[in-house]
Amino acid sequence: KPPEFVATRLSGTVTMLKGQGGNVGISAGEDGVYIIDDQVQPVTQQLLAEIRKISDRPIRFIINTHHHADHVGGNEAIGGAGAVIIAHDNVYRRMSTRQFNNFLNETTEPWAAGALPVITFSDRITLHLNGEDVTVIHVANGHTDGDAVIHFPVSNVIHMGDIYFN
Prior knowledge:
Elements: E1 6-9, E2 14-18, E3 24-29, E4 32-36, H1 44-54, E5 59-63, H2 69-72, H3 75-80, E6 84-88, H4 89-95, E7 99-101, E8 106-108, E9 119-121, E10 124-129, E11 132-138, E12 148-152, E13 157-159
Protein backbone atom coordinates (compact mmCIF):
# COMPACT_ATOMS: atom_id res chain seq x y z
CA LYS A 1 0.00 0.00 0.00
CA PRO A 2 1.47 3.40 -0.96
CA PRO A 3 2.02 5.85 1.90
CA GLU A 4 -0.49 8.59 2.50
CA PHE A 5 0.87 12.12 2.48
CA VAL A 6 -0.80 15.12 4.06
CA ALA A 7 0.34 18.62 3.11
CA THR A 8 -0.18 21.56 5.46
CA ARG A 9 0.50 25.07 4.15
CA LEU A 10 2.30 27.06 6.87
CA SER A 11 3.02 30.30 4.98
CA GLY A 12 3.11 31.65 1.46
CA THR A 13 6.26 29.65 0.73
CA VAL A 14 6.51 26.96 3.43
CA THR A 15 4.60 23.67 3.50
CA MET A 16 4.88 20.70 5.87
CA LEU A 17 4.38 17.26 4.36
CA LYS A 18 3.56 14.35 6.67
CA GLY A 19 4.12 10.87 5.32
CA GLN A 20 6.14 7.80 6.23
CA GLY A 21 9.07 8.94 8.33
CA GLY A 22 10.00 12.38 9.57
CA ASN A 23 8.01 15.38 8.38
CA VAL A 24 9.34 17.07 5.26
CA GLY A 25 9.61 20.85 5.16
CA ILE A 26 9.24 22.41 1.73
CA SER A 27 10.10 25.95 0.69
CA ALA A 28 8.75 26.76 -2.76
CA GLY A 29 8.87 30.19 -4.32
CA GLU A 30 10.46 32.47 -6.87
CA ASP A 31 13.94 31.01 -6.33
CA GLY A 32 12.83 27.39 -6.62
CA VAL A 33 12.32 24.53 -4.19
CA TYR A 34 14.33 23.24 -1.28
CA ILE A 35 13.33 20.60 1.21
CA ILE A 36 14.12 19.63 4.77
CA ASP A 37 14.59 15.86 5.07
CA ASP A 38 13.31 13.30 2.57
CA GLN A 39 11.87 10.34 4.49
CA VAL A 40 12.72 6.67 3.80
CA GLN A 41 14.14 5.40 0.51
CA PRO A 42 11.16 3.21 -0.54
CA VAL A 43 8.79 6.22 -0.67
CA THR A 44 11.06 8.61 -2.59
CA GLN A 45 9.07 8.53 -5.84
CA GLN A 46 5.78 9.09 -4.01
CA LEU A 47 7.39 11.91 -2.02
CA LEU A 48 8.60 13.56 -5.22
CA ALA A 49 5.10 13.32 -6.70
CA GLU A 50 3.69 15.07 -3.62
CA ILE A 51 6.33 17.80 -3.81
CA ARG A 52 5.45 18.34 -7.50
CA LYS A 53 1.85 19.06 -6.40
CA ILE A 54 3.27 22.04 -4.46
CA SER A 55 5.75 23.13 -7.15
CA ASP A 56 6.94 21.58 -10.39
CA ARG A 57 10.28 23.38 -10.15
CA PRO A 58 13.43 21.29 -9.53
CA ILE A 59 14.56 20.71 -5.96
CA ARG A 60 17.72 22.80 -5.50
CA PHE A 61 18.72 21.82 -1.96
CA ILE A 62 18.05 19.17 0.68
CA ILE A 63 18.71 20.06 4.30
CA ASN A 64 19.07 17.00 6.55
CA THR A 65 18.13 17.53 10.20
CA HIS A 66 20.12 14.42 11.23
CA HIS A 67 21.46 11.11 9.85
CA HIS A 68 18.63 8.62 10.53
CA ALA A 69 17.24 6.72 7.54
CA ASP A 70 13.72 8.15 7.87
CA HIS A 71 15.20 11.62 7.24
CA VAL A 72 17.89 10.91 4.61
CA GLY A 73 16.43 7.98 2.66
CA GLY A 74 15.73 10.01 -0.47
CA ASN A 75 19.10 11.78 -0.52
CA GLU A 76 20.70 9.60 -3.17
CA ALA A 77 17.84 9.83 -5.68
CA ILE A 78 17.03 13.51 -5.12
CA GLY A 79 20.70 14.50 -4.89
CA GLY A 80 21.38 12.48 -8.04
CA ALA A 81 18.74 14.57 -9.81
CA GLY A 82 20.71 17.72 -8.99
CA ALA A 83 19.79 18.80 -5.44
CA VAL A 84 22.70 19.84 -3.23
CA ILE A 85 22.61 18.08 0.16
CA ILE A 86 23.37 20.22 3.24
CA ALA A 87 23.86 18.89 6.78
CA HIS A 88 25.90 19.26 9.94
CA ASP A 89 29.48 17.94 9.91
CA ASN A 90 28.49 15.01 12.16
CA VAL A 91 25.74 13.91 9.76
CA TYR A 92 28.43 13.48 7.11
CA ARG A 93 30.64 11.59 9.58
CA ARG A 94 27.81 9.26 10.61
CA MET A 95 26.55 8.60 7.07
CA SER A 96 30.02 7.97 5.64
CA THR A 97 31.02 5.32 8.21
CA ARG A 98 29.54 2.13 9.67
CA GLN A 99 27.34 2.91 12.69
CA PHE A 100 26.16 0.66 15.50
CA ASN A 101 22.98 1.53 17.38
CA ASN A 102 23.08 0.05 20.90
CA PHE A 103 19.40 0.79 21.52
CA LEU A 104 18.23 -1.12 18.42
CA ASN A 105 21.18 -3.54 18.43
CA GLU A 106 21.71 -2.98 14.71
CA THR A 107 24.49 -1.88 12.41
CA THR A 108 24.04 0.61 9.58
CA GLU A 109 26.54 0.40 6.74
CA PRO A 110 27.92 3.60 5.20
CA TRP A 111 25.56 5.31 2.79
CA ALA A 112 26.40 5.49 -0.92
CA ALA A 113 28.53 8.49 -1.90
CA GLY A 114 25.57 10.05 -3.74
CA ALA A 115 23.53 10.15 -0.51
CA LEU A 116 26.13 12.07 1.49
CA PRO A 117 25.96 15.78 2.23
CA VAL A 118 27.95 17.92 -0.20
CA ILE A 119 27.94 21.02 2.01
CA THR A 120 28.43 20.67 5.76
CA PHE A 121 28.56 23.22 8.57
CA SER A 122 29.72 23.25 12.18
CA ASP A 123 27.47 25.83 13.86
CA ARG A 124 25.03 27.40 11.39
CA ILE A 125 24.39 28.18 7.76
CA THR A 126 21.91 30.56 6.14
CA LEU A 127 20.00 30.17 2.88
CA HIS A 128 18.77 33.34 1.17
CA LEU A 129 15.96 31.99 -0.99
CA ASN A 130 12.27 32.57 -1.67
CA GLY A 131 12.24 35.98 0.02
CA GLU A 132 13.48 34.70 3.37
CA ASP A 133 16.80 34.33 5.16
CA VAL A 134 16.46 30.84 6.64
CA THR A 135 19.00 29.80 9.27
CA VAL A 136 20.00 26.20 9.91
CA ILE A 137 21.40 25.90 13.44
CA HIS A 138 23.26 22.94 14.96
CA VAL A 139 21.83 21.82 18.30
CA ALA A 140 24.42 19.91 20.29
CA ASN A 141 23.39 16.91 22.39
CA GLY A 142 19.88 16.69 20.97
CA HIS A 143 18.37 13.59 19.36
CA THR A 144 21.76 12.89 17.70
CA ASP A 145 25.11 14.68 17.62
CA GLY A 146 24.28 16.25 14.25
CA ASP A 147 20.83 17.72 14.84
CA ALA A 148 19.81 20.89 13.05
CA VAL A 149 16.90 23.23 13.65
CA ILE A 150 15.72 25.34 10.71
CA HIS A 151 14.24 28.79 11.40
CA PHE A 152 12.07 30.61 8.87
CA PRO A 153 11.66 34.03 10.57
CA VAL A 154 9.39 35.67 7.97
CA SER A 155 7.11 32.61 7.83
CA ASN A 156 7.27 32.19 11.64
CA VAL A 157 8.13 28.50 11.25
CA ILE A 158 10.68 26.29 13.00
CA HIS A 159 11.47 22.80 11.70
CA MET A 160 13.04 20.67 14.43
CA GLY A 161 13.56 17.23 12.89
CA ASP A 162 13.32 14.66 15.66
CA ILE A 163 14.22 17.03 18.47
CA TYR A 164 10.49 17.53 19.03
CA PHE A 165 7.71 14.99 18.52
CA ASN A 166 4.07 16.05 18.48
